[in-house]
Amino acid sequence: MFGMFAISPNLRVIFPELAEDLRAQRRHISMPDGATLRFAIYEDPAARLTGPVHSLRVLKRREHYSTFAEIFFRPLAWVLTPSGRGDVPPGGVSILDRQRWATADDWLQYGPDVTSVDLRNLCRYVPFVQHPLAGSREDWIEMYSDEITPILEGRIPV
Description:
The protein is α+β, with helices and mostly antiparallel strands. It is built from five helices and eleven strands, in the order αααβββββββαβαβββ. Strand 5 (69-73) and strand 6 form a beta hairpin.
């Protein structure tokens, strides 16, 4: 979460209580309403760090990919995304839901005293993924602000 706030400083404005909880290193932190932290296994050497982006698939099927921040850096991909709480927006279902990304919202409640937890006890399924837009960018429209959305892409040596 610290990395996401560094990539996307506007998160301090959107989620001020979460920013303060992280800054103060509170023992137990709750995910704010309107956001969810998702993760998946990511083995690609292509890394991507971005701030807020809203993408809509306009060809083949209706779905969306919306982020407040994302970190794709193997071995894991992390996305802080609007929660939606089960609503299907006009852009269709979330690609994260279709790919069955795991949810890590409750993990923020673990304090610094927790040094080891078996991942199998925290979630039942973690998919292997590529970036949701990889290989099919021509199917998508990406919307972002050139003032608040950093986009850093590169390759990690094998």
